[in-house]
Design a protein that fits this description.
Elements: H1 2-32, H2 41-51, H3 58-70, H4 74-95, E1 105-106, E2 109-110, H5 112-115, H6 118-136, H7 145-159, H8 164-173, H9 181-203, H10 209-236, H11 239-242, H12 248-251, H13 257-261, H14 263-280, H15 289-299
Antiparallel strand pairs: 1-2
Helix pairs in contact: 1-4, 2-6, 3-4, 3-9, 3-15, 4-6, 4-9, 7-9, 8-9, 9-10, 10-14, 14-15
């Protein structure tokens, strides 16, 4: 009974922490995004529509948790968390467009190109991406300029052809084609994993070499687990639960971990990736508890 109460208290504590950080990142994004009544009004309105008021903010939570572990300044953590969320929002806007995955629903509401139009959605993605680097390069963020340049380099690499954009290109080219597990893993390490890993490493920017090495391993495992769970949810969850069109990957004949391995084996893979992520945090003891909890949050999602 005591263990059950302890577990319940721990879960309540985590969800309270997550809620506070979700509120915080929403407030930070509110400030950095242009006002909707500032010209060009339609573009700015669409940027706010796409970046605010939705999602679990997993990337921001990972950034904040790593920052707490590595004692990164909270203003740097805010900038890093908002930058990764802006990059993520831009990727979703472009991903939903007819020339990409052609999805009409995102986070339970019409996709940006459906709410506005294709041209506006294209510009929204461009502008959100630029804003992410504007936030991270602000002059008064830190006096350690080598660190700041390193953060910019990290985010740029995670977003470009060696990261998220490259993964999306591989994904589009793979429709209807069989992939090996290694090829599928490479695709998702770029498309999903690179930005998740960057989220953790940006938060850990003030950490020691040993801390950064460990959280890099953790982030790689968690990033891949995130995609495996996404593939599982695409099969098991419904549209209202997901906030996006369920079964879209299967309908589009896309290679997924479920189509490659089967549902049961995909779930076993997600569990193994979770175990590997947790193992990477062993040296930190209780100080890495938030990162451990986030690994569980990611791999046990049912939303």
């Amino acid at each position: 009974m005591l263990n059950q109460k302890s577990t319940e208290t721990s879960a309540q504590d985590f969800y309270a922490w997550a809620a506070s950080k979700q509120t915080r990142i929403e407030q930070v994004l509110e400030k950095v995004l242009p006002c909707a009544n500032l010209a060009p009004e339609k573009l700015h309105s669409a940027m706010r529509y796409s970046a605010l008021g939705g999602g679990k903010r997993v990337r921001a939570l990972l950034c904040y948790a790593a920052a707490e572990l590595c004692k990164t300044d909270f203003l740097i953590a805010d900038a890093a968390a908002s930058a990764v969320e802006l990059i993520h929002a831009y990727s979703l806007v472009h991903d939903d467009m007819p020339c990409m995955d052609d999805d009409d629903l995102r986070r339970g509401k019409p996709s940006c190109h459906k709410q506005y139009d294709d041209a506006t959605a294209l510009l929204v993605g461009d502008a959100l991406q630029s804003l992410a680097f504007e936030v991270l390069s602000q002059p008064n963020l830190t006096t350690i300029f080598v660190q700041q340049v390193g953060m910019l380099h990290l985010l740029a690499q995670a977003s470009g052809s060696a990261g998220m954009a490259g993964g999306q290109a591989i994904d589009l080219a793979a429709v209807g084609k069989p992939l090996t597990q290694a090829e599928l893993e490479t695709m998702h390490q770029l498309k999903t994993g690179a930005l998740i890993q960057a989220s953790v490493l940006l938060g850990a920017i003030s950490g020691t070499e040993a801390q950064i090495t460990a959280v890099r391993t953790y982030a790689a495992k968690v990033g891949l687990a995130f995609q495996v769970i996404d593939d599982i949810l695409d099969v098991e969850a419904d549209t209202s639960t997901l906030g996006k069109t369920a079964g879209k990957d299967a309908d589009s004949n896309k290679p997924t971990y479920v189509t490659l391995l089967g549902l049961a084996q995909a779930k076993l893979l997600a569990q193994q990736l979770y175990n590997d992520a947790i193992a990477a945090l062993i040296p930190f003891g209780a100080s890495a508890e938030r990162l451990r909890e986030l690994a569980g949050f990611i791999t046990q999602r049912s939303f």
